[in-house]
Each structure stands twice: as C-alpha cells, then as structure tokens.
Design goal:
Layout (H helix, E strand, L loop, with lengths): L9 H8 L5 E5 L7 H6 L3 E6 L2 H10 L7 E3 L10 E7 L10 H10 L1 E12 L13 H8 L3 E8 L11 E8 L4 H4 L3
Length: 183
C-alpha cells in the first residue's frame, strides 16, 4: 500500500513528545509503522487491525511489540478508555456509511479530556478508498463529542493523498458518553 511505512508526521511527533506517556490506540494500523516512535517516547501503544495479513506484517517488523498488536475489529473493541487515539488513514479507508459509527466508537474509546489526533484525508465527493471527508462533515461528525483544538496542513504528507491531508487535534469533551448521548 502506498501509505505503508511512512514516518511519523512532524506535527504528530511534536504532539506526542510534548505529553507525558499515556495509552495510545492506533486503529487500522496496517504494518504499525507509527508504533515504534510512539513507544520510544514512552507511550503504551495498542495497534489494531482486522486484517490478518496486516497484523502478521506488523509482527514481522516489530517482534518486540507483538503483545501490542491486536487482530480485531475496531468497532467491536471493549477496552478501558485511552488517553489518545491516533488516526492515520483509518477513517478514509472506511466506506462513508461507517463514519457516524466511527465517530461514536472513537468517542467511547477516549477518556474525557483525552484526544483524537491525526492525519485526516480531506475532500468532498472523493471516490475511494481512500474516501476524503469534507471539513463541514467532519465537524458535524465529531463536534458532539470533541472540540477542535488544532488544524493545519501537513507539509510532509503522503503523495497518494495529493496534498489533501490535515493534521488535527480534537479534544474529547468532559462528559460521560452514555449520560449525555444515550444509545
């Protein structure tokens, strides 16, 4: 895949380096190339993918972290809340009808005050995968649970995304998910 093996983007490196070590989830991790630099900063990282081939590849690259690589469906995870979820080419791999379930699921996986951070593939009407998402749609999807704290273009983005990537930090609002938005 053209996005495999990319280095941690500079805004992500700065974000994670400026924070105390915490629990970080990497959904749709692929070969988990983002895991080693995050672990080197002291973060406890769980990398998840539903593809057996992806997890096998990740385990071959990072045998020392095999216990941090999980073959699972993101939407079925039942784990204690994370301090941060690092989004990198996962949302854009999902069909558009999975965006609302993604937003709800990711909000439930982050403790209040935690963050959804990452690189988002922007663009309306994009055929995919990858599927671009418009800024207004992303705001509508995430704003019930998150507040946008930072957004910037990504100077070291991947060529496959044609300059349409944005680094974003979304802070999880300080309320219990089930009390504020019952299922």
């Amino acid at each position: 895949m053209p996005w495999e093996g990319a280095s941690l983007p500079e805004p992500a490196r700065l974000f994670f380096a400026a924070r105390p070590p915490g629990r970080v989830l990497l959904p749709g991790c692929g070969s988990a190339a983002d895991m080693p630099p995050l672990r080197a900063m002291g973060h406890q990282v769980l990398a998840v993918d539903f593809s057996e081939a992806a997890i096998a590849l990740a385990r071959s690259h990072w045998p020392e972290a095999a216990d941090s690589l999980l073959l699972a469906d993101f939407f079925e995870l039942k784990l204690p809340a994370f301090d941060c979820v690092f989004e990198r080419a996962f949302l854009c791999a999902l069909p558009p009808d999975r965006r609302a379930p993604y937003a709800r699921a990711v909000a439930g996986m982050i403790q209040p005050g935690g963050a959804l951070v990452g690189v988002f593939f922007m663009g309306e009407g994009e055929k995919g995968p990858p599927f671009g998402v418009g800024e207004a749609e992303l705001e509508a999807l995430l704003s019930p649970w998150f507040e946008l704290e930072q957004t910037q273009s990504l100077p070291d983005g991947l060529p496959v995304f044609g300059g349409k990537e944005r680094w974003m930090v979304w802070r999880r609002r300080m309320f219990d998910l089930d009390q504020a938005f019952p299922s």
